[in-house]
Design goal:
CATH topology of the largest domain: Rossmann fold
Number of strands: 12
Helix content: 40-55%
Number of helices: 16
Strand order of the largest sheet: 1-2-6-5-4-3-7-8-9
Largest sheet: 9 strands, mixed
CATH architecture of the largest domain: 3-Layer(aba) Sandwich
CATH class of the largest domain: Alpha Beta
Order of helices and strands: HHHHHHEEEHEHEHEHEHEHEHHEHHEE
Number of domains: 3
Amino acid sequence: MSDDLNERQALMILNGLPGIGPVSTTRLLNRFGDDALEIFKANEKTLLDVEGIGKKNAGTILDWPKFFNLQREETLLEKHNATFITIKDDRYPPLLKEIYDPPIGLYFLGECDFGASCAAIVGTRRPTLYGRSVARRLAGDLVRLGFCVVSGFARGIDSESHEGALDAGGKTMAILGCGSDIIYPPENLDLYRRISQTEAGAGAIVSEFPFGRRADRQTFPMRNRLISGMCQAVIVVESDLKGGSMITARFAGEHGRLIFAVPGRIDQAASRGCNRLIRDGATLFSSIDDLIEELRYTGQMQLNLEPASPVSGAGVMESPSENFLPDNLSESEKTIAQCFADGAILYPDNVNETTGLPLNEVTASLMMLELKRLLQKRADGSYEKTS
């Protein structure tokens, strides 16, 4: 059966076999003269000579039809109007080839120029309103300057980044930690459709995993290395000390990419990771000009870009407005609203302690401020100023 394979099919099989990751596939290709077909013609003894290929993996390769349904995979490619590009194709992301463990193939839905300048925006799944606003404006600024915005399609900052790029009329790539036919998180169905519609040319859904592969603890870090690997720069908007965004930033350091972090309040969990990155040497991100200057300084600027003064979000790190309060507020509402002027996230008890107002009056005023759209209640019961 292996004699009937073509090279693309052989690479697709290698990419989808369980237990054989990107490093092992690269070693196999190096051993067999970069010819994937020769791998499936080899005997067990020859396969065992390859570093990292034990008896179990050798058996998987020799008996591959038990582990990978090629016909089903090709049927699903056609059904989803998807494409499988290999590391040998001209369309394969050029920067991704530079990393230690590039995937030998990528599934993608939609249209995207993988050779275009790309910048990643990543962050927490539980952002503040400020973080959401920064991610959207930053994504819009990047696409207006010709960048493709790359992110991980997760809740929070990732989704805001994709939406911001699309709303600004630009392109975005969503790198999945599962098969490209699985929409996770499920509430991103409309976003998935916006990105993957080929006729819209809005970008691409990208995955290295075969159809049907569910996300797990292993797939998300693998996705994060792709986000870093195909981009010139990684910008962390909000992140705690642990999580996928910090993993992506670590990969960016290993890959020699530019790392930026948006600074935040020292008393907010969503800012701890960014503040730590800045302390450890990441570039403080205050506007799109910071990225342009770093790219020019390192000689990576591929676009003829001017400073971002004409771009709407050039000053993404804006100070909170001191005059955000309307005139139709009671004295209690004004007093409480001022507690949020600097971007604070507070619980009713915190407001009670700060203002000295009775808790029942605080609760009623918070509700009125929310109805007047000056404050927004978060899922954990705290409040913050609307952006």
